[in-house]
Amino acid sequence: MSPLSDLGLRRYPDDPRDRFRAWDAADEYLLDELGEPQGTVVVFGDRWGALTTALAAFDPVQITDSYLTQQATRANAARLGLGEPRLLSVLDAPPPRVDTLLVRIPKSLALLEDQLVRLAPSVHSGTRIVGTGMVKEIHTSTLALFEKILGPTRTSLAVRKARLIFTEPRPSQATSRFPVSYSHEGMELVNHAGVFCADRLDIGTRFFLKHLPETRKGQRVVDLGCGNGIVGAFVLRDNPDAEVLFVDESHAAVASARANVRGPAEFLVGDGLAEAEPGSADLVLCNPPFHEHQAVTDATAWRMFTQARRALRPGGELRIVGNRHLGYHAKLKRLFGNSAVVAGDPKFVVVSAVKSR
Ligand SMILES: C[S@@+](CC[C@H](N)C(=O)[O-])C[C@H]1O[C@@H](n2cnc3c(N)ncnc32)[C@H](O)[C@@H]1O
What we know:
The chain is α/β, with parallel strands linked by helices. The chain has ten helices and 18 strands. It has two domains: 3-167, 3-Layer(aba) Sandwich (Rossmann fold), CATH 3.40.50; 180-354, Vaccinia Virus protein VP39 (Rossmann fold), CATH 3.40.50.150. The structure holds S-adenosylmethionine.
């Protein structure tokens, strides 16, 4: 197996200004320890396809919630002239028998829990299970999940701030507690594991819902980064004649939105509005993310705002909510040439920007 540094791996979208690598010490530690994996190999939680690509000779099945991970994996495989990778989403049925299970610890403990439960029936007494993550990503609660769902678990020494997890499988009776649901203002919301604010509504979202613009019949609205779809669902509750597109890069999010929205609407798993027709939207609503995996960054928010501007018709509006300290008001002003704070409290602001005619 070649060292990861020799593979020329890239993140997705492939931004030349991107100073981040597409792999880290946790991926390297796992590959060093693994040697030649046996039988059906499953990789869960790979971030940019580093593990899946490095192990391509063993034809691994990748399971992920993220469309961006899938695109990165496809692009990395294509760059290296490898075949089409085998990609499953977290909601697909896993392979019926798994002989080597590799887990890159995801940010969401709920997603890890649900996926280990889904994989448990495919694991047998001879399955080799190895988890990996940076030390700061592996907590007592992470190890407790492996122990409870799959079997006795120990960890390795830390190497370059990464750690491995080894589990001896034993028969499991674990069942998933997902999807979960809660209600907000009489609206029942279904949430698959790992979806943003799966257990209760986020306070930023709550604030945003109070300051949505009025919409007209036939208005083309985008719920950008829809999570469980509550923002677009509120638009449709007040105006069932709006045409709403729900888009998120998380498969679990879009599946949750589908479950939560009654009536006709469009749903897309994708990189925001990257593929949208210019001028195809009248209104874009967005509560942007401020991390990517474990890293805090506004790169995704900025990309979403840029995509929104392109997708809006002249005179169309982007309305967002964000933490006050993130300075979105100034950022939107830079991008659109205008922006206005519609509402604010000590923590959040709702900002509107209009595409010039
Ligand atoms: C802060 S959450 C907001 C969720 C929901 N709109 C709400 O307000 O409760 C941000 C959402 O953006 C999604 N997201 C992150 N990167 C994305 C991208 N490139 N394209 C589409 N959605 C993305 C995340 O999966 C997450 O669901």
